[in-house]
């Protein structure tokens, strides 16, 4: 790349590449994410210049070779966010007026490609100044809500601390990133580490990642062709944000979700990313200056498009049949171990939405199995336009389980109801079980390792994290790993002494301290405070590492206890709006006043422990072991119940959900 001196009116450093003497070649302006720099696009730049694009890669203010931030722009987050947008707008104005190298007005098409902070900033500028751009590609743009903005600001000091740690030992960070992200280009990883070493910490301390305009207003205003690419793992644009985006039905926007991709979509799956963006989409969107229709006329033509990008399935994959299934029979195991057929869950591949129909026998003597699934003789679809029912999502693996299932190219068949089908039945969370037919055995059963092998299995966990897991190691960990939620390494193991199950939580390659010992202390504090916390014990590996073994809360002898997360119970509220107050209302409606006292106790304990990871998937409700259909939830007068709580109450006529605040070891995510 060639670095050019920025004009006084456009202070951001620019790095040019491609056929710079070809005035007709289309231009791509690249806007990176927070703590990165223009050099972090190097692999994409090689592809795009080979395809004939001229590249203008920018260093955001406070990053790379661009000027540092001044006190006036850091006076408030609003001022900081406004400067992000005005910097990019000024660059685009200068490019339009003077060209890439001062050759005169730019005549060729210009598109902006941005990631995260750069993605949302690009969208903001395109919405307010559509005359400056012909198209926008936004990779997992940082769409943040007011709640997220406050959280980012409150926790910005942690990112400052992380940047200082990187600067103190950049080589260690480089090696760690390559171990954790084996598909990332070493060139881009090194550029990212170098950029983090030189980033303006005054800007990082602001916790600002986007312009101040609400992203919903930006999306509604966009009138240039816009491609938004996101993933399904550890991304910003997920859940309620993604649903909210697609509901807005802006015809100028196409959204593509790359299954299995994290926040850095392009670095993780470069071939899949570029197959979507170029040459097809970029080629179609930048052949000539875009003439935008009026917004009302555009909206009449067609709704916004969204599609799920899945790789082709691998032939001969033993998991393919189960993991690409579109229909499953659902059963419930009660506390005595008796199995009863609940109904049929199906997946509509045309709409990418689940459907559920209760069995007639269950309608006569059963109960709603979760919020959003009232007893009904008619087929049900997820409420509020969601693609999946929350209670079935609770029975799926989290980030760790999905990562294990995705190894060995198994991600190629994770479609339809595949995640539900792939989980080892013996370790699945909750009372729901799934089979191919009413009379068939539950799918994907596996033999769990004993808890006595917990320490031995650490070598397999470490091998998986390094990316050199062999077939035998995968055979040992797959049954216990496939059901586990969260992103940290963990396995379900059998306890031969009690006949029950335990969860073994393992150290992660990225741990900066002995986090699991801290979590064990948090569990003991919870028990001492009178909360109903699971029993746990530490298995010491060495002076710096331990394995935390926690009893499973959803097992009862040979039987199982129904489970739904607080995220499911609190629907249809957004994750961003979630609070202890919302949790208390949901708990009151489903489990009565006693559960509210549990909410208060948990909130107090989390604050004392400085737990910043107490989100709605870390909370949950169990279906009472002895309630069944024999007991109703406590009620109160409407004067004492909010309208939200009254809506919740109607969702389970038997009101048997309780034991809401089983403490499962939410460890503080940060300490002084």
| Sequence of strands across the biggest β-sheet | 1-2-4-3-5-6-7-8-9
Main β sheet profile: 9 strands, mixed
Number of DSSP E strands: 22
Helix content: 25-40%
As a whole number of angstroms, the C-alpha radius of gyration is 26 Å
Note the beta-strand portion: 15-25%
Structural class: alpha/beta
Taken from the alpha-carbon principal axes, the silhouette is globular
Distance between the termini: 42 Å
Mean pLDDT: 80
Task: Summarize the structure in words.
By secondary structure, this protein is an alpha/beta fold. It has a nine-stranded mixed beta sheet with strand order 1-2-4-3-5-6-7-8-9, with helices on both faces. Strands 12-11-10-13 form a four-stranded antiparallel beta sheet. The protein has a four-stranded antiparallel beta sheet with strand order 14-15-17-16. Strand 14 (490-495) and strand 15 form a beta hairpin. The radius of gyration is 26 Å and the shape is globular. Residues 340-433 form the HipA N-terminal subdomain domain.
């Amino acid at each position: 790349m060639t670095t050019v001196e920025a004009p006084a009116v456009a202070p951001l450093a620019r790095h040019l590449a491609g056929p710079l003497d070809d005035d007709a070649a289309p231009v791509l302006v690249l806007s990176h994410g927070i703590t990165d720099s223009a050099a972090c696009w190097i692999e994409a730049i090689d592809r795009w210049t080979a395809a004939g694009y001229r590249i203008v890669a920018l260093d955001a203010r406070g990053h790379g070779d661009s000027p540092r931030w001044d006190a006036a722009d850091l006076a408030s987050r609003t001022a900081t966010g406004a400067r992000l947008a005005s910097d990019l707008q000024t660059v685009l104005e200068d490019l339009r007026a003077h060209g890439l190298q001062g050759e005169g007005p730019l005549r060729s098409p210009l598109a902006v490609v941005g990631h995260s902070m750069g993605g949302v900033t690009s969208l903001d500028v395109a919405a307010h100044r559509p005359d400056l751009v012909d198209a926008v590609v936004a990779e997992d743009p940082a769409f943040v809500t007011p709640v997220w903005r406050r959280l980012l600001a409150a926790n910005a000091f942690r990112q400052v601390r992380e940047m200082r740690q990187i600067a103190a030992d950049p080589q260690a960070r480089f090696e760690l990133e390559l171990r954790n992200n084996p598909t990332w280009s070493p060139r881009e990883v090194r550029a990212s580490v170098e950029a983090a070493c030189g980033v303006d910490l005054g800007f990082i301390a602001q916790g600002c990642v986007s312009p101040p305009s609400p992203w919903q207003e930006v999306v509604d205003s966009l009138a240039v062709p816009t491609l938004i690419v996101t993933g399904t793992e550890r991304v910003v644009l997920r859940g309620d944000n993604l649903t909210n985006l697609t509901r807005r039905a802006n015809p100028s926007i196409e959204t593509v979700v790359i299954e299995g991709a994290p926040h850095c979509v392009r670095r993780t799956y470069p071939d899949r990313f570029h197959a979507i963006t170029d040459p097809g989409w970029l080629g179609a969107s930048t052949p000539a200056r875009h003439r935008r229709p009026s917004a009302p006329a555009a909206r009449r033509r067609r709704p916004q498009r969204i599609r799920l990008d899945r790789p082709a399935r691998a032939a001969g994959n033993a998991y393919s049949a189960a993991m690409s299934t579109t229909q499953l029979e659902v059963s419930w195991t009660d506390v005595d171990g008796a199995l009863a057929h609940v109904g049929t869950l199906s997946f509509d591949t045309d709409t990418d939405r689940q459907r559920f129909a209760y069995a007639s026998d269950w309608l006569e003597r059963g109960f709603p199995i979760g919020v959003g699934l009232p007893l009904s003789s008619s087929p049900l679809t997820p409420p509020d336009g969601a693609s999946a029912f929350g209670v079935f999502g609770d029975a799926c693996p989290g980030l760790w389980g999905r990562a294990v299932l995705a190894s060995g190219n198994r991600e190629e068949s994770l479609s339809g109801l595949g995640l539900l089908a792939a989980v080892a039945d013996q370790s699945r969370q909750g009372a729901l079980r799934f089979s191919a037919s009413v009379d068939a055995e539950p799918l994907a059963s596996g033999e769990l390792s004993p808890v006595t092998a917990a320490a031995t299995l650490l070598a397999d966990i470490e091998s998986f994290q390094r990316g050199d897991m062999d077939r035998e190691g995968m055979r040992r960990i797959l049954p216990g790993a496939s059901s586990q939620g969260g992103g940290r390494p963990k396995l379900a193991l059998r306890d031969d002494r009690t006949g029950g199950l335990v969860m073994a939580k393992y150290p992660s390659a990225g741990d900066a301290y002995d986090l699991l010992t801290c979590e064990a202390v948090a569990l003991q504090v919870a028990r001492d405070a009178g909360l109903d916390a699971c029993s746990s014990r530490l298995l010491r590996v060495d002076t710096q590492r331990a394995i935390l073994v926690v009893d499973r809360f959803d097992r009862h002898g040979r039987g199982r206890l129904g489970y739904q997360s607080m995220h499911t119970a609190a629907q249809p509220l957004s994750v961003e709006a979630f609070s202890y107050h919302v949790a208390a209302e949901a708990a009151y409606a489903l489990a009565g006043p006693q559960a509210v006292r549990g909410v208060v106790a948990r909130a107090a304990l989390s604050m004392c422990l400085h737990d910043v990871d107490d989100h709605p998937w870390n909370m949950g409700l169990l279906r009472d072991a002895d309630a069944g259909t024999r007991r109703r939830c406590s009620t109160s007068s409407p004067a004492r119940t909010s309208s939200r709580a009254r809506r919740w109450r109607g969702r389970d006529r038997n009101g048997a959900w309780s034991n809401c605040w089983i403490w499962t070891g939410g460890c503080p995510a940060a300490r002084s």
